[in-house]
Design a protein that fits this description.
heterodimer; A: 429 residues; alpha/beta; FAD/NAD(P)-binding domain; Rossmann fold; 7-stranded mixed sheet; 4-stranded parallel sheet; 15 strands; 19% strand; globular; B: 526 residues; alpha+beta; D-Amino Acid Oxidase, Chain A, domain 2; 3 domains; 9-stranded mixed sheet; 8-stranded mixed sheet; 33% helix
Chain lengths: 429, 526
Amino acid sequence: MEAIHKTDLLIIGAGFSGMSAALFAANRNVNAVVAGGAGGFEYSSGLLDLWGLSLTQKGRITKKPWAMLEKLSRQEPGHPLARIQRKTIQQAFSELTAALKHQGLTYAGYERKNTLVMTPFGTLRPTFRLTPAMRSNAEAVAAREPCLILDFKGLREFSAVFVREMMKKAWKGLRAETLEFPETRLQREVFTPFLARSLETEQVQEKFLTLIRSAVKDETWVGLPAVLGIHSSEKILDRLQAESGLRIFEIPTSPVSVPGIRLKEALMRALDNTSVTLFQNRRVTEVNALPKGGFHCRLDSDIQPVIVHAKAVLLATGRFLSRGLYADREKVHESLLGLPVWQPESRDQWHQQAYFDPAGHRINRAGIETDAFLRPVGPDKRPVHETLFAAGTLLAHQDWIRSRCGSGLSIATAFKAMESYLQIRPGLC
Amino acid sequence: MPEKKCFYTEVLIIGGGVTGTGLARDLALRGIPCLVLEMETINAGASGRNHGLLHSGARYVSSDPVSARECRAEAEILKVIAPHCIENTGGLYLAVKGDDEAYIRLFPELCAKAGIPCESLTVKEALELEPALSKHTIAAFRVEDASVEPFHISLENMNQAIENGARYFNFCRVVKFHMAGKAIQKVTVNNLVTRQVFEIEARMVVNAAGAWSGEIAKLAGIHVDMIYSKGSLLITHSRVSGHVLNRLRPPSDGDILVPGGTVSIFGTTSLRVDRLDHIRPTVEETDILVKEAAAMVPELTIARYIRAYAGVRPLIKEKDPEGSGDDRSVSRGFSLMDHRLDGIQNFITITGGKMTTFRLMAEKTANLIAGRLHNTRECLTATTPLKSGAPSRMTEAGMSFRLRSGRDETEDITLCECEMISRNQFKELIAWLKKNRKTSDLNALRVHSRLGKGACQGTFCSQRVTGFMYDEDYLKNDEGIYNIKDLLRERFNGQRPVLWDGQLAQAELNEALFCGFYGLDLEKPL
């Protein structure tokens, strides 16, 4: 038995672009379903990047994302971000961050500038919009006042000494200490999501405060891996700071990433009681375009499969890790509809010889080419389907990893795809 | 790292592969002081870039029956003295539809003639033993092949040599021989890490530099005509067979699959190359191997490969090379050259041969040296267990977990999940490396353990181990970043040709993390 669900728009992929698109759909009262994997969030730093790589100096970062995007539109007019107006990108960011703020995640930053945040390697990475605990991270880096970096016993992904050693040259008052996180005595290994969830309780917050107070000497700043709660992270931060009198900041960690989970859960909450239905943990396994327009799609799960009849589809399935793209020894394929994939000629050209080649690997620019409405196109450059759209890292002619533009790309193309959908919708039968 | 300007030793051995380390062990056990100079790390050349196959001898019954006999005898010795480095898998020789039937009929006869045990199996029996075999298998024979861990063998050689008085310097390159009359009086050496230049005086100098033997001989003005035959191999994500699987045909591309611990190794290609720099496995070679694989084991066409690697076989050019151009037809026997014949009294080159016969090569070489140094002690390597006190068992795939399971170490945590290596195991290894090798960087840990060798190829373990090394005070300042960058660069060379499907997704995650997040692609990450 299969349940049948009818919708105007099926968004495939519940990663950052899919969930952004879902939010934009909800705000426009579009009847939509979002389904598919959300794994991307757990790999996300939780920082919202716009553009972080210099296009004028090789191997450098930039603090001026908008200036770089202007340059990009001249240098690489085919780049998906070069094809979207600055005003549209700004709107997309504003709408998304407004919704996140409503869910308790205040993303802010400079109008024109990137902010530099320290990573667990003691390196600085540029980002555009960030939460208060990460903004304090950037402020701490700028201030270079006496600061205690903490890590926790059994936490393998983060070493305070690593941060100290990397940064101590230009930051004299930096100290590192390992603490036993409250109520983890019996645990050999601890994981950041677990610590973050346990900090949601007042009792653990109390103990945590006592712990920090005892560890601090003359420091005014305390930095720690991002574990300050999931749902009420900002309230927890406020409380810890108010009661300790310290400036406390978070350092984003490698996966599984708490800031990524916060983002995912906030976006999910934002979809509650809206025109968008979320089918969680269901993988879209088949998409069949109907001759008369529209799509029949199959969503699989451990329980009952669901058939979705959708008038339009937005592909936000990501790249290789999330299986939106699939590569065999010969070629790169689009996994669901077998769409044409723009790609280097042969596998030998996929990667440079040197891993850190500043030119980046060509395979990362492979992907789906679209028309101005973000509809995937065939070799004739015409849309493959009237009502099929694509957004996010699946798109061709961009290298989101090296450019540090992943979230910007996802948010802006999701926004643009939604606008396109609304423009084309009157023509739907 | 040596800080002195001049060293003295009885025997200077150039090359820390299985030949050089095997010789060091032999000499040390005879009480002859020696010093091994290695340009990179143990087994950086062909010794670490082969199948890890302990030959039964069956592969050479047609082309080189003498080598076949030597293999059999040596394999039997190694199984006794170094059982911890060997997995006694047994081997199968398999022919599939279309293979030369005359060769198949001849095979058991040739084995018998060379004294190589070989048992004929029915196809049904073979398929029961190895379900992954092709349904088109037409003939099968069982032989006594085994799987050997080459790094483990060489590390144990060197460690045991050191325990018996030998010395070992790595990252040291010989740049000049100083002649005094008809002998090499001293050798100038460049430490590639510290850029220090120093000298070594020795009574005898042995060239065991593998593919680089020709270049070393050239420093003494001697011409050794080498053939560089590049071979590439693939490592599967999981183990494919229980036995070593050999294709029953004259040696060709992609006809040996060797299981080792949790993985299998498949190869090889044979490609004549002119130069020794930038030896890397290519996309093209990978594709040749994967296509060839299908004939014997069909699932190898869809298997996940975690990396590829390439080595250069050091072959000595015969006077009249056969016209076929296939370097596999060049003898795999070894050459021991006493350069007295070239007018240099104290210089020997030992080259060619194979992993399986390294001990015999060392014995013959050491006999020559001992004679010259008037040492009358006999060779002990065939009867002395090849076992040192070093924690080097972690080089073996899957071993780390086996060593740990059953032990209750509540304070310990796993840092490398692919290969199940724990913090305490790394701690033990680092302490040992610091004491005995004066080095403890990530690449040294990789050489001496399974770090970075599992499915994630360093994505998770490298960050954790680096963090751990900082915590334990083994790393200072920004060293960790350069450690990780070196490891990732090195690992990428082997990954590049196998990046499709699952490994491509892994590489994407790796790049997102190390470049996108940590910024290691930037000129100045800080």
